[in-house]
Amino acid sequence: MKATEKTDTINNFLDYMTGSSRKENISRGVCIPAPIGCGGPAKEFSNERSRREYSIGGLCQKCQDSIFGGVVMDIREVVNQYWAIQADLKQWIKNELDPLLLECESSDDVSELKRQTGYQFGGDDSDYRLPSIVTVHFAIYSCRFIEKEEKERDPLGVDRIK
Ligand SMILES: [Zn+2]
Question: Where are the chain's structural domains?
Answer without folding.
Answer: 8-68, 75-155
